[in-house]
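Appendix B. One record, verbatim.
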Amino acid sequence: MTQTAMFPVPEGSDSPKAGVALGRAYQLHLPRGPRSKGYVYYRGTLLKEVDLGDKGQRQLLVVELMQRGVNQSRLAKVLKLSRQTLHNYRESYNRFGLEGLLHGYKPSESKSREIQRRLHVEQRRPGTKARDLARRRRQEREARPQNGELDLDPPRYELEAVAIDEALKALDEDRSEAAPSSRLPAQELPFAKNHEASASRYAGLFILLFPLLTQWRWLDKLFVRVGRQWRIFMIFLLMSGLNIRSIEQLKHVRREEAGRVLGLGSLPSLPTIWGQFREVAEKQSAQGLMADLFDDQIDRGLVGARLWFTDGHLLPYTGQERVHASYHTQRRMPVPGQTNLVTSDERGRIVRFEIQEGKGDLRDTVVRVGDYGKARTGRAPIQVFDREGHGAEFFSRLVEHHIPFATWEKQADKKRLEAIEEAAFTHRLEFNGKAYRLLEQTKPMVHQRVDENGQETSHRFELRRIVIWNLSSNRRASGLCWDAERGLDLDLFAQAILHRWGASENTFKHLNERHPLHYHPGFGLGESEKQEVDHPRRKAIGAQLKTLQTQLARHYQQLSKTRPTYNRDGTPRANGKYHTLKQRIQQLETQQAQLRAEKNQLPERIDVSQLQDYRSFKKIDNEGKNLFDFVTASVWNARRTLIDWLGEYYAKESDRVDLFYAILHSHGWIESDDRWVVVRLEPLQQPSRRYAQEQLCRKLSGLGAKIPGGKWLRIEVGDTPL
């Protein structure tokens, strides 16, 4: 698919003969001087047309070309600018974003805007950007090592993946947080700006930082991987915690109030946020961040390692490109999209997730997750999955990998289950407030396979069948499990299977109600490696065979009700209905046999590149989605931890989740000085809820959360300090 040019090619400018070579295969053609219309070429092809008489377009062109590595001396010479001006443009964009670069440039001024500027002149940054940048460069020079010593340590956000574990161990030994932040200027650290107590309607979001900093070591991972780009993750934290479904919806957020709670000072504008997001996405750090999170939370016992539930969740795609189809369970039909295969523990915490094209491969994912759990914990957790994984071939793979599992039995004989006598159910179980009775049986399995030498062999093994009788609904169902010869208890497998039944299913049915699970920031598309489709001719022949079979069935029915007719001499009548039906049936059967023979000669699947007028499949770039889901998974796991801590102070379990979200959405006040960042929440009205809120805040303050730069975090409940 060709991409249309953003600017039309001007007549007479198809060739950059008079252009100035800038390096990196870029050329700049200025037929009427450096303050007129110019043309940018890349490898001899017109890239864009720019009006260099407009200062804003000139600044943007300079920043774009410098980011692409052109020769700065040639660029400065052809544009009649100094090298220092080019450097200031680039630094202004890196430090202050797009709006900072264009600060002071307005094509037109209205009277109301002039009045607003005079009213708020004291809140604007004093001096020009050039002076501000010079002051920052001077501070950085003064912070460099003295006495001729060189700082040979690389920045922590540029460490190789093999050194990440050592870096995190060093951060554990030195909780002063100086190590990951020592490479960044003080003003770029979280909560760097001191301020007096100020009101914020997002103060409750502060409770998420305590478990993320102390238990999940969240900022440590961000500084190791992305360095100064940590800000976009705090914005994603705001979106995940308050269920803001897109970056565009941030325009409704109070920028100052939210920015202070997140340690940003003020929430950036939408163009700046998108710029920060693109900078992080270009680093391709999502897989590293996800691996750090998954490995660390298992090693430190933050997620369970007994039962792991793996399930696929549809991520729909509504664009115009052709992508592989996933499956919509509620609508019971394939829809364009991807599948997010998520593994969670029995408490609903996310263990790991992986986004796959189309429907995804649940079976392969379960095997890899089982091997991964065995490598991290020394013993494979019990893998629980739905009926999609049912099959002798898959069960055989799990047994050979020595991975225990539990699942529902597919296509179980209901009449056989109902015929089992009540006295056979000797085991009782209470689960989720319901009573069950259990029966254990043995089911032999045989898997026929072909080995490497082409010889057919069979793998024989036995599974445990559990018949579950729900006494409240009087329904019976059966499940299959294998305990890897550990002698595991029957109750454990029964509870694992019941977790996959209706309202007892794991928490991902409810995650999207509270958090933006389906949001995909920044769609990028590329060519998919999976370009095979069902042979279109085979599909067409299948439709024709179905039509022929319908016609044959109708003719057979008519023939059975028709009697043959004869002439006077006893010969069958040639134009009789009976004879006509028989001839028509013979023609249809012959046509059916020909189509079947043609279908058998065609391959089942074919590459779309071999077809004419057939669009190829596109693959969605999930870098941005993985970055956002890294934050969503962290917030979801921290939420589960905070709810468990609330259980120590609030006995009503059915209301505990609502209490957590009431605290999360609390208003309050925030204050920051050289040592402390203190948040005070408005007290809840109900006495029992207020008590739980106060005790939770005391517990969080006692965790000793400390941020880069040396400031401690504290949260409390009380009246307004203003």
